[in-house]
Design brief:
five-stranded mixed beta sheet, alpha+beta, single chain, 4 helices
C-alpha cells in the first residue's frame, strides 16, 4: 500500500539500534520498515564537537545534496549536522552520515543491503518533489519508563525539554513536527 516516491520521514533510536522509515499515506505517515543499525558511535547524548566520535541526537534534514552515491561506505546520506540549533550552541563536526559498510566513527551505519533500500526511498521522495526529509535522532524510545530510567543523566533536560515533545507530537498525529531553532531552543 506504499507508493515509491511518497514523502519519507526517518527516526533513529541509538539505544535500540534502529532506523524507522515512515512513508506518507493519505494525510499521515505510516511505518514502512524498521532497519537495524549495525553500529553507531559514542554513548547516549548529543554530539558536541568534531572528533568526539559521538553520533548526533536532534532534528536534521536531508535534501538532494545530502545524497552520496559514491561513498567509500557504499552509499551515504548526510544527516545535516550541525543544524542551526547545534551551531547556536557552538557544537562542531561535519559529514555525519547514515551509510553502509557497518563501520562508524560518529555515524549511523547499516548493512549495504539496508542502506540501498533507505537510500532508494529517500532519493525517490526527493525526486518526486519532497523538498527535504526530516531525520529525528533520539537517544532511546522516549517512553515514560525510559525517561525515568535516564532521569539522572546530565542530558535529561535536553531529552525531556527539546527532544521528547517531538516524539509525543508525532505519536499523536503521525505527522512529522516542523522544527526550528531560536535562542538555543
Amino acid at each position: 500500500g506504499f507508493e515509491m516516491g511518497a514523502p519519507v520521514y526517518l527516526r533513529l533510536f541509538k539505544y535500540e539500534g534502529v532506523i524507522e522509515v515512515w512513508m506518507k499515506r493519505g494525510e499521515q505517515f505510516d511505518l514502512f520498515e524498521v532497519y537495524p543499525i549495525c553500529i553507531n558511535s559514542g554513548a547516549l547524548g548529543p554530539k558536541l564537537k568534531e572528533g568526539d566520535r559521538q553520533a548526533p541526537e536532534g532534528f536534521y534534514e536531508i535534501n538532494a545534496k545530502s545524497l552520496n552515491p559514491n561513498s567509500k561506505y557504499h552509499l551515504a546520506i548526510n544527516m545535516g549536522y550541525p543544524n542551526a540549533y547545534d551551531r547556536e550552541l557552538g557544537r562542531t563536526g561535519a559529514h555525519l552520515m547514515i551509510h553502509g559498510a557497518c563501520a562508524s566513527i560518529g555515524c549511523y551505519a547499516l548493512t549495504d543491503d539496508n542502506i540501498e533500500e533507505v537510500y532508494t526511498l529517500v532519493k525517490a521522495a526527493l525526486d518526486n518533489g519532497q523538498d527535504s526529509i526530516p531525520v529525528h535522532a533520539f537517544p532511546f524510545r522516549m517512553t515514560d519508563d525510559a525517561m525515568k530510567k535516564y532521569s539522572t543523566s546530565k542530558w535529561y533536560g535536553f531529552w525531556s525539554e527539546e527532544l521528547r515533545p517531538a516524539t509525543i507530537a508525532f505519536d499523536e498525529t503521525r505527522v512529522p513536527p516542523m522544527m526550528m531553532s531560536c535562542d538555543g531552543k
